[in-house]
Known about the structure:
- The chain is an alpha/beta fold and 331 residues long.
- The chain has ten helices and 14 strands.
- Helices cover 31% and strands 27% of the residues.
Amino acid sequence: MKKKIEGNTVKWGIIGVGDVCEVKSAPAMNQITNSKIEAVMRRDAAKAEDYAIRHGIGKWYSDADQLINDHEVNAIYIATPPVAHLQYTIQAASAGKPVYVEKPMARTYAECKQMITACDEAGVPLYTAYYRRALPNFLKVKELVDSGAIGEIRMVEVRMAKPLEPNIITHQKNHWRVDPEIAGGGYFYDLASHQLDFLDYLFGPIVKASGTKANQARLYPAEDIVVSSFQFESGVLGTGSWCFSTGETSDKDSTTIIGSEGEISYASFGSNEITLKTDAEGEQRFAFEMPKHIQYPLIKQVVSDLLGTGNCVSTGISGARTNQVMEWMIG
């Protein structure tokens, strides 16, 4: 297996050290063997310096070009909102440096394709931070599906309903996650992207999808409800509904995989429990402990892939497929 960086250590440069880098992702980079954070960048120099000091990192920048062209940095993690993913990926690829980019991969499928082309032409790998592909509870779902625990897979049902109070929408009018110019869409893009990407990992690409979107509560520019049907290359069929303006009574996050001999149910966020129901054995439940830094298992795969000792299951190619599917679903 060919190494994809020079040297024996992945030396990360991080662009955009905001909330996601406090616990979820970046700290793992300093805990994985042969991986370290070399430098960080944020446009606000004081915030970049503060992050670096608190996390024991020796260099910080307020200019992305300086970080990307730091000769000690040999891999780039882009942790900005999606509006900047394309620009920074092109810059990193031009500098000959591999890219690990936050999800969704970009605002549009067209931007994703440009990112893939830039990295292909530069000969550098591109990874997407769909970390559920490496978490123990989701791997258990994959194991159950692949082992035939519920027989032949017939269909998938995804349902997400989130209330306004208490809610995940904390800055409804101004938050970047509900501004399509910055994020590509609203909370559908932010949350359903994780769900759809994992289903891609389970069953292969979705080859057909359609849907309807609306902005029913009119609290922000993006859609707040999406209803869709879709079909996988494997022949499995699916339905999904996502609404972000319900009452508390309707709060729900559930994916159910239905087979010829049973079903598997799980939540994509919050709960780490899986329920297996089969005709032969009835109901079984499985619970899992999550890593402190939730992206640790996937970043470990990225490091192994860059060093030529393993493979990463979340790439630019797979990440782009999720953007394409979301565009099909919202028309």
